[in-house]
Amino acid sequence: MDTTAVARAPLDTPETADERPNYLNAEYGWKSWLFTLDHKRIALLYLISVTFFFALGGTFAAIIRLELLTPEGDLLGPDTYNRVFTMHGIIMVFFFLIPAIPAVLGNFLVPIMIGAKDLAMPRLNLASWYVYNLGGLFTLWAIVNGGVDTGWTFYTPFSTTYSNTYVVPTAIGIFITGFSSILTGLNFIVTIHRMRAPGMTWFRMPLFLWSTYATSLINVLGTPVIAITVLLVAAERIFHFGFFNPAVGGDPVLFQHLFWFYSHPAVYIMVLPAMGVVSELVAAGCRKPVFGYSFVAFSSLAIAVFGFVVWAHHLFVAGISPYSAMVFSFLSFAVAIPSAVKTFNWTATMYKGAIWWKSPMFYVFGFMGLFLVGGLTGLFLASLGLDVHLHDTYFVVAHFHYIMVGGAIMGFFAGLHYYWPKITGRMYNDTLGKLSAVLVFVGFNLTFFPQFILGYLGMPRRYHAYPPEFQVFNVLSSAGASVLAIGYLLPVLYFTYSIFKGQAAGNNPWGATGLEWTTQSPPLPENFPDQPVVTEEAYDYSKREIKVA
Amino acid sequence: MPDALAAHAEAHGHSHGHAAHHPDLQHHFETLEQQKEASTLGMWIFIIQEVMFFGGLLAAYMLYRIWYPTAWSEGSAELNIQLGGLNTVVLILSSLTMALAVRAAQTGKQKALVGFLIATIALGTVFLVVKGFEYHDKWVLHHVPGLNFQLEEGQVPQIAIFLSLYFALTGLHALHMVIGFVLMSVILWMALRKRFTPEWYTPVEMAGLYWHFVDIVWIFLFPLLYLVDRAHQVQ
Predict the structure, then answer these.
(1) ipTM score of the complex?
(2) In this complex, do A258 and B42 lie within 8 Å of one another by their Cβ atoms?
């Protein structure tokens, strides 16, 4: 079986001859979706769920930006404002950013990229979607009843003793949803270990799989710790155990350690898969293999490992020992190295590459610029002295939005634009795609760059009112948020339109390498007509025509 | 998808013979062996995440034990070492019967398999009943933090934290036992319907792995909770 021959089949003409039923039209009816074991359908179920939560979290963000348009607290009172930013954080972190790329693109791509028929445990995969939604229902119930005001970080003893909001249902929701990411991670690890097609060695795997694998390791090792932590918060509220209550000898800082032991690596759960998408796109978009494949592959694992030993940089002002603070500061600097390896290698790949200007690449360029700023400002915060000044200011808010939104969401959108033709078999309007990428980039910078300045000037986060001299930056930020919102809404429109009216995409509209582009679009229920055999390295563009739809 | 199935049979029928047609071979695996390897790896990864889950609590245990050694010593003395010891023996025995059940499935001894599974469930029940008596005693003695807790004369207040950890750790362990019951009941039901053969008994083995893990958690919990400073107290 010569896969390269299949891959080099017509690049820009849709294959019309004897197409077999694909995963979308093989079965019909709601049962065929809600009881499906097909990883591709489950990926679409996840896409619907995470889009819903993204919209909900975005609505809360809009309310925040609206309130901050003026210095006075005129739209919301302080209590409501506390709930709004808490719900924004909880929904975006636990219900959108963490599942977004792994559960949607990962689910769709992992088996296809390694040449398997499905994930190793299809029933577990479906179960994790239900588990995710069950956790979402708990959290939604809490929102409908008035929400939570602890911040997404649930710091004790406020969350355990003083808050009069729905902490317990939200904590249970996060506990339950955590299991969905544990099970998805477990499934990916087993699948990548045991289901690879003949010839698909570890070092022939697309880099997306390396980053998915690294992400899954964090999911499996980190998520149980946040699970037990939120469970303890709930137990402390219900039974007044006192683990984190200083009044009976408990230690609130212990909570912060346990919380960040997961929640810092969680940042890498969000951004590592985005890095995987970018690696795929840099190769496909420059018609070159990724520069230093093994360095990029191992940097994913290095980020996963280092990511577990930097958590206490969130605690520099919490009274931890200065010696451990120094160690954690050093390690936080160290985690920048593998990230920089990736960024440099992508840039080196682009050097003298035949870059094509399609909308996925626009998102990739956006990612690289924003991730660079987000990563470098992280070093500011890892510095012990500077962190004392910047801690809990808008500088922190801007920094992590550059990583989470500028990195993770840009990567998610890049991936969606790149794989949309494979997922649906349809092309979307590329001009609108580019427009949306530009709007997101401009809107994002307008929203969050002023927040760096605000934070540096000393505006603290999580306040509904602020001194009037900060207004100009806040107005800029709110204006940028509107542009950003348009940038995010546009794809919903042209993606939906493309499903009904889009041109047929053909097997390989981008002329890219990789098993996923050798099968039909949308793929067969079993992904491939025959068991694929891999005979070439990843990103071998040397034998390929440079011709793109 | 008759085509795909036909292609599947064609591609693998000749090399793996009857294995390709085994009713328990899921469609996306090539061989039973690959399927079993996947299940085993998956189960071990699940156990690793369980270790991290209990690990969070054990980190809290470690911190507070270093901070409050007196509370740990006095709190541990409040626990019933006889019942705890009995439960340790009961659980180790249940691990033995579980291992024998896996062996019986491997060698195709259906009656022995059913017998050992029932023995495992029975020993697990004994454990939970004993645990229930222990919890009851704690209730009577007002040793349940949050619900009814009273310090005795001269006791350090941080005993509350020790006992909270005792209930959190043993409670989560008991919850895992209950989940183990559900698993074992399903396995027993499948065994009664003679679903397992020496060729395919993966569920028995995976349930066994889980059961052994839950036992090992107790092997850690018993000394950590019941045996703090006991030698000192005997003198």
Answers:
(1) 0.91
(2) no
